[in-house]
Every structure is written in structure tokens, then in C-alpha cells.
Amino acid sequence: MKLSEVLIKPILTEKANGQQEKLRRYAFKVARKANKLEIKKAVESFYGVTVMDVNTAVVPAKTKSRSTKSGFIVGRKPAYKKAMVTVAEGETIDLYSTI
């Protein structure tokens, strides 16, 4: 798998921001087929940091429903894989530079 296909986008939530400040841990949405070694290489090459640890989790799909004039619509949000990447002491990733 190409390194450009591994990382999809960073996860910017309140919980993820708290972990960035306290634990130097950054969350990314990654490709489902990516393994920990590929994720580590991709983060190191794109952000220029030393990765100490990579934890992954597959977030399950969720059922969403809403009521409209034409009736009740039921759908599913897709499942995705997320990676929590811990960087070395004293290093940071600036995720807000491209906004």
C-alpha cells in the first residue's frame, strides 16, 4: 500500500486534543487495510517526527435514522479504522497549519 493512501485525515475532537497536550498522542483516520508499520512510516514521512507507539482500533458502523415527509429513512454510517500515534518526547505535529 502506498504511504499517501494510508492516512485519510486527522481526528480533531475534544478528547483527541486533550491527548495531544498531555500524552503526545495524535489520532488519525486510516485505511482499513493499513497495518501499524505502514501507519508509522506514513506519519514519520509526512510530519517529520519520530513515532514511538501506534495503537489501532476499528470503529464499528452505526445505524442512523430520520423522519421525513416521505417516511422513515434508515441508513448506516460506514465503519472505519483509527490509529492513535504517540510521538517522541519533545516533538509535536501541527495539525492546524493547513486550516
Write the layout of secondary structure elements.
Elements: H1 3-6, E1 7-10, H2 14-23, E2 25-30, H3 36-47, E3 51-59, E4 62-68, E5 71-77, E6 80-87
Antiparallel strand pairs: 1-2, 2-6, 3-6, 4-5
In short:
The chain is of the alpha+beta class and 99 residues long. The chain has helices at 3-6, 14-23, 36-47; strands at residues 7-10, 25-30, 51-59, 62-68, 71-77, 80-87. The protein has one domain (3-87): Alpha-Beta Plaits.
What does this structure look like?
The protein has helices spanning 3-6, 14-23, 36-47, and strands at 7-10, 25-30, 51-59, 62-68, 71-77, 80-87. By secondary structure, it is of the alpha+beta class. It has a single domain (3-87), classed as Alpha-Beta Plaits, CATH 3.30.70.330. The longest helix is centred in the middle third of the chain and has 12 residues, at 36-47.
Notable traits:
99 residues, alpha+beta, Alpha-Beta Plaits, 4-stranded antiparallel β-sheet, two-stranded antiparallel ribbon, 3 helices, 6 strands, 41% strand, elongated
- What is the H/E string? HEHEHEEEE
Beta fraction: 35-45%
Query: Any idea what the CATH superfamily is called?
Result: RRM (RNA recognition motif) domain
- Per CATH, what is the topology? Alpha-Beta Plaits
**Number of separate structural domains:** 1
The CATH class is identified as Alpha Beta
Compute the number of strand runs. 6
Global mean pLDDT: 94
**CATH 2nd-level architecture:** 2-Layer Sandwich
Which range best describes the helical content: under 10%, 10-25%, 25-40%, 40-55%, 55-70% or over 70%?
25-40%
How would you characterize the largest beta sheet?
4 strands, antiparallel
Instruction: Quickly give the structural class.
Output: alpha+beta
Strands side by side in the biggest sheet: 1-2-6-3
Cα distance spanning the termini: 27 Å
Please give the radius of gyration in angstroms.
16 Å
